[in-house]
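Posting for a labmate who doesn't have an account.
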Amino acid sequence: MANGLLLVGCGKMGGAMLSGWLDQGTDPASVVVVEPAAALRTPLGARGVTAVASAGEIPAWFWPDCVILAVKPQQMAAVTGDFTRFVGPETQFLSIAAGTTIGFFEGVLGASAAIVRTMPNTPAAVGKGMLVACPNGHVTDAMRKRADALLAAVGAVAWIGDEALMDAVTAVSGSGPAYVFYMIECMTEAGIAAGLPAELAAQLASQTVYGAGALAHAAAEDPGTLRKNVTSPGGTTQAALEVLMADDGLAPLVRRAVDAAAQRSRELGG
């Protein structure tokens, strides 16, 4: 009977997801990790997780109900075929690789494989991720609930039925944290240019983005309303927004950035 998690790849994202599962009460004895890097495997033993260097070292008694493929997209073709023996009616495959399509996995694992393609983002490392999932036709309701619970351990989860949307998902939320980090960098540099000490400028920028994000998440109002609420006519915020909201301001720049990321996601998918 399939009853366990097989995590293939324990880098930043795979490791963050594993920590979330263990923190949520997953039995470490039910988890096997395949990770070639010894430095990443070593700490897992202290948490009671079985960690091996290759698929051939997976214990014979172990049979997962979920195989999580958490390797880089460029490595996926070389790795996925090692796990075809687990394809069956009780096991689903969950991929977190950008640009790697369900069709690719069906081509490697077989047309009968149950596959969930998902796009997480790096805030999953602190339990605040955004994860969007898309199943193929062999994913049962029970499998979907299982995948949803696994993903929810590290953030908010949304499901889509049209895989074509995944490129846009990748561009907005998958790559999105980097846009926010860069915004913090830019705000910090602008604060320094305005005369603030570097440490204070960095604190102001980081905490302001953190607080504004938390408020946007918790508030009943939409972001546009929140923006208007903090903008006094003729005040300092309005002066800044006149720059950011100009025809050549932030909105068209973000659209171009998202379009570029979506196009690259499509290219990765072949």
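Reply:
Got it, the structure tokens are right above this. The first strand starts at residue 5 and ends at 8.
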